[in-house]
């Protein structure tokens, strides 16, 4: 807002201020209103010269004093807008395909193979040095010197 004010006040002859009446967000058209900053500009210094793209969606809002100007010459009946609306409606009905991914096992988990004891010093690649506090199968609660208390799988630890 402050930067816009600086730009407007430093303009030598004219300042052109625009806004996006419609945006395409995630393959859907979203209508939006001008910011209240534009609404607060002095009426006697504002000349609305919008392209007919702004259209009829503003007539329902009425929150902007520019709403009547934008609703006047709607181009929402053009083939491009009709096609965009139809595509948006079709996209909302079609369920996106499920994605299949491939993953590799990072750490094996064998609850019967807990080979650590409480009080034992261990090292973890990310958390550093620590002491085993409790054991639940292959999940160890370790009080790390710098990272605090964490639950980790024993295969991520090394004995010190």
Please name the defining characteristics of this protein.
single chain; 160 residues; alpha+beta; 21% helix
Task: Give me the secondary-structure topology.
Layout: H1 2-10, E1 22-25, E2 28-31, H2 36-39, H3 67-72, H4 79-93, E3 121-124, E4 128-136, E5 139-144, E6 148-153, E7 157-159
Antiparallel strand pairs: 1-2, 3-4, 3-7, 4-5, 5-6
What's the quick description here?
The radius of gyration is 31 Å and the shape is elongated. With 160 residues, it is α+β, with helices and mostly antiparallel strands.
Model description:
- The structure is a single chain.
- The protein has 160 residues and is of the alpha+beta class.
- It folds into two domains: 2-93, no CATH class; 111-159, SH3 type barrels.
- Helices cover 21% and strands 22% of the residues.
- The chain has four helices and seven strands.
- The chain has helices at residues 2-10, 36-39, 67-72, 79-93; strands at residues 22-25, 28-31, 121-124, 128-136, 139-144, 148-153, 157-159.
- The strands form two sheets. It has a five-stranded antiparallel β-sheet with strand order 6-5-4-3-7, with no helix packed on it. A two-stranded antiparallel sheet has the order 1-2.
- Strand 4 (128-136) and strand 5 form a beta hairpin.
- It is elongated, with a radius of gyration of 31 Å.
- The model is unreliable at 52-63 and 67-75 (pLDDT under 50).
Percentage beta strand: 15-25%
- As for the number of domains, it is 2
Mean pLDDT: 74
Q: Could you tell me the radius of gyration in angstroms?
A: 31 Å
Distance between the termini: 58 Å
């Amino acid at each position: 807002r402050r930067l816009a004010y600086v730009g407007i006040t430093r303009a030598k002859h004219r300042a052109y201020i625009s806004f996006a009446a419609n945006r395409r967000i995630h393959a859907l058209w979203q209508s939006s209103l001008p910011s209240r900053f534009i609404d607060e500009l002095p009426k006697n210094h504002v000349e609305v010269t919008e392209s007919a793209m702004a259209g009829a969606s503003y007539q329902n809002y009425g929150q902007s004093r520019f709403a009547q100007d934008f609703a006047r010459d709607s181009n929402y009946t053009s083939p491009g807008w009709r096609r965009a609306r139809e595509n948006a409606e079709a996209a909302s009905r079609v369920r996106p395909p499920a994605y299949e991914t491939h993953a590799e096992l990072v750490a094996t988990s064998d609850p019967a193979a807990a080979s650590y004891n409480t009080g034992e010093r261990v090292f973890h690649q990310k958390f550093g040095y620590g002491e085993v506090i409790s054991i639940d199968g292959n999940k160890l609660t370790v009080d790390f010197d710098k990272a605090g208390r964490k639950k980790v799988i024993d295969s991520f630890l090394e004995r010190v």
